[in-house]
Amino acid sequence: MGDYDWNERNRQQVLEGRQILERTSASLARSNQIAIETEQTGHEVMSELEVQRESLLRSQRRLENANDGLSKSSAILRAMHRNVFYNKVVLILIIVMEALILAGLLYIKLSH
């Protein structure tokens, strides 16, 4: 009977070991499947991020072009503002000269 108990005990341990091994194999298979799914998700995310990166780079280039255009427009507006100021100064000088000439002519006409 001692042999029988020993064999039965070994058989039970082997069965338990096999069950543990099967559970471990199933767990590893699930972990492997999760890793594959995670890798696929990672590739999808990286592809989407690459598309977004390209979109952001295109937007950045458009903004740089717009900024260049705004800089040129600002320079043109400054030049126009300066020209308007000079034109006003010249116009005021012409009006003052005309007033002085008119005053001089009136003085000459009234003094004779």
Structure explained in plain terms:
With 112 residues, the protein is mainly alpha-helical. The chain has one helix at 2-111. The protein is rod-shaped. The relative contact order is 0.03.
Short recap of the structure:
One of its GO terms (cellular component) is SNARE complex. With 112 residues, the chain is mainly α.
List keywords for this structure.
transmembrane helix, coiled coil, 0% strand, transmembrane, 112 residues, single chain, membrane, protein transport, mainly alpha
Count up the helices: 1
Alpha-beta classification? mainly alpha
Mean pLDDT: 93
List unreliable stretches of 5+ residues.
none
C-alpha geometry? rod-shaped
Q: Strand portion, in percent?
A: under 5%
Gyration radius (Cα, Å) is 47 Å
**Percentage of helical residues?**
over 70%
Number of strands: 0
The biggest beta sheet, please?
none
Order of SSEs: H
Distance between the termini: 161 Å
GO cellular component, one term: Golgi apparatus
GO molecular function: SNAP receptor activity; SNARE binding
Membrane topology: Single-pass type IV membrane protein
Subcellular location: Membrane
Secondary-structure map:
Elements: H1 2-111
GO molecular function, one term: SNAP receptor activity
Main location: membrane
Family: Belongs to the VTI1 family.
